[in-house]
Fold this sequence. Notes:
The structure holds 2 protein chains of 2 kinds.
Chain A: E1 3-5, E2 10-14, E3 19-21, E4 24-26, E5 31-38, E6 44-50, E7 56-58, E8 64-68, E9 73-78, E10 87-95, E11 105-106, E12 110-115
Parallel strand pairs in A: 2-12
Antiparallel strand pairs in A: 1-4, 3-9, 5-6, 5-10, 7-8, 8-9, 10-11, 10-12
Chain B: E1 4-7, E2 10-13, E3 19-25, E4 31-38, E5 42-51, E6 54-57, E7 64-70, E8 73-78, E9 87-94, E10 104-105, E11 109-113
Parallel strand pairs in B: 2-11
Antiparallel strand pairs in B: 1-3, 3-8, 4-5, 4-9, 5-6, 7-8, 9-10, 9-11
Amino acid sequence: xxxxxxxxxxxxxxxxxxxxxxxxxxxxxxxxxxxxxxxxxxxxxxxxxxxxxxxxxxxxxxxxxxxxxxxxxxxxxxxxxxxxxxxxxxxxxxxxxxxxxxxxxxxxxxxxxxxx
Amino acid sequence: xxxxxxxxxxxxxxxxxxxxxxxxxxxxxxxxxxxxxxxxxxxxxxxxxxxxxxxxxxxxxxxxxxxxxxxxxxxxxxxxxxxxxxxxxxxxxxxxxxxxxxxxxxxxxxxxxx
Lengths: 116, 114
């Protein structure tokens, strides 16, 4: 069965510092990986995805993520955090083998707080 | 929110009453999904549709039914609402390639069952 873990419920970082939100996954086949952001009382917004190719994926709002197959990780990063980046972040995975019926499995989310 | 609307946006109902939530898309996407979001659980798939009148169960489908009579509309019905179904419900859509296509989400419906 496919699964995804976000080991930190909350991450706090000072404005201007680099930020990392961690994600690890487990699948039978190849992973298709996604990051979403949710602002209060809003739906999820797509940030970026890894399907194949370059391990470093660039997305919206200056975010990027690095796919690491050996560590089964897909951590979200940004070089310089903004207060407006404060939100709930979700990692999601889909198993290319169909073991998860081709559906997305979401992590439980990580709350990012950027301190002014 | 990618041409997706959900109605109602908020609803309070009583245990045992039927409830229907509507998702409407203007993107002509093939796939539509219903998720629920609960603290500590992330998002969990309830049901999904891969075409008109073609639906299938997700991870947490008990107590829910769905219907899709038109490409643009996907309805989620709670036949007899229970307090455990108090949650925020999100609709999502995606295109032809269910493996690689991105899912785009609606604004959500907050449902409270008293």
